[in-house]
Design brief:
Elements: E1 10-15, H1 20-23, E2 30-32, H2 50-55, E3 64-67, H3 75-87, E4 91-96, H4 106-118, E5 121-125, H5 128-138, E6 144-146, E7 171-176, H6 184-194, E8 201-207, H7 220-229, E9 233-238, H8 243-251, E10 255-258, H9 267-275, E11 278-282, H10 287-293, E12 302-304, H11 313-329, H12 338-359
Parallel strand pairs: 1-2, 1-3, 3-4, 4-5, 5-6, 7-8, 7-10, 8-9, 10-11, 11-12
Helix pairs in contact: 3-4, 6-7, 6-11
Length: 363
Amino acid sequence: MTAVPRSKGMRVVHLPARTPYAWKLQSRDFRILNGTEIPSGETVPTTVSADWLLEHGPLTWLDVLHLHHIDFEDVATLERLLDACLGHGVNVVFTAHDTRPMVGNAEGFVERLRLLRTAEVSWVCLTEGSVTKLTEILDERPNAAVIPHGYVAAPESLADLERESRSPGTRYLMFGAARASRDQLSTMANWSLGIADPHSALHVLLRAFSPADFTDGGSAPPLLEMAGRDPRIRLTMRPYPTDEEVTRAGLAADALLLPYLWGSHSGQLELAFDLGMLPVCSLTGHLPEQYERHKGLVEEPEWFDWSQGHPNLFGEKFLTALEKAATRLDSKPRRLDREFLDYRAQEHRTILDDYARVYGGDR
């Protein structure tokens, strides 16, 4: 097996590598192997799994394994993968995007975190607040580098683009998978019944449904019914929306709806900053710290906080925020902020330097 020359940089596999967060982590110092052919002649899947990696040992064809979301991996399999990486000198890096599970239960999530803590794993947190939260969970402060999320839409990809001209009514966007942490259904109902302007529009960009979305209380049937009741709501279904499709939808929207029931960090919030959309956003997790990092450079989201009250207050507080956002959106035209995009480019260079150190540099 031929080793990749160091001049081409460290070879990194992301588990998984479907998001802009992962794909932007490329530089002269490191490159992504997902989607490329390895010496065996096989192609590393974009959505590579721990099982696939273990089946393609020895792991001498990569230098770094970058873990992002550990909820989907069986604990025993994850432990075998960590042992295999240790045995072949592969540096393992874990970015703690979440401080509570997106799927599964809290016990399983904490078990995975404790496994990573006891292994020779380098931790990255997106905010100082998440380090504090993980310290509470683990009863020990993880030795983590704090590296912010950074951009979602690459500044260079926006160089020749501009936001679409304002239509007579306000344009709202909501997108993403139907997760338990995000309430798309009540959001659509509250928007439809609460926003009376006939010229306003809501674009809902969906990821393809699976059978589970139609069974066991799945949200697909009522969501489709709700959309059919209001001609101002437009549904767009994609297998997995591309970065370009999401960017186009954002450039054609004035506000981004982020109805999180819970959450730790939000790439969608960062995208709203990139594209000049006003976020209407749950005050949850470490999202306020994400905003504080850019305070003075982007406008503050229209927050709504229901976490300390009765769950039935979610709709009331969301609709109040929606009404306030409508007033703010009427006040001025919205264009891409070129100075902020220049700032994003500089921020990204710092992020890449920080990750080069975490990945291990010249080993």
